[in-house]
Predict the structure.
Amino acid sequence: MIEECLVVEFAVTGDHCPLADATRVTGQRIDARPPQRRSDGYTLLRCSGPAEGRLTETLDDDDRLRYLHASRSDGRINYRCLSRHPCIVHALIDAGFLVDSIQYDGGEERYTGAVVGHNVLEGVLEAAGETVGVTLERIYPLGDEDERAVAGRWDLTPAQEAALRVAYEMGYFQVPKAVTASEVGDELGIGKSAFLERLRRGQAAMFGQIFG
């Protein structure tokens, strides 16, 4: 068994995939789950974005996307669709990158995930070097406090995970609180009520899994 695991973050520029283009046009950020390739050549995309703005209209107008479905949850819109455009991240996945999350913002992308062992890391870095626009941003050993970097531990939406993580990092759960709910909401780019709703839903989901 290999005990060494590293958290890796990549930045991607110059990609004209549908989600990157949508953030470039609308100026809104998209949080995405790892894309899933299908045998018919399509890729299943699952992501979420702000409920306000032109994001839904922009995605719906993109001819590269099919079967776009949108549903509202926690003050955001969750999207599912099929895409014909190849995902750059799959070149890293094929080399052994265990992708956890993807963010699209202003036409740029950020991949966060893990690699197991230096041999796998070398292969992933080699694949990144051969893929246009992919650069290594950060790498560090995975510790117990970083288990959130590995996908699938908690069944939370990207918005709920972000609310919990940012609230924790800003000291919202300290006694006394280091920041107010409004300040955390500002950091997330949402209102106080939207932040508190995501926080409650995220906590309820985690407590439900812990206590059954």
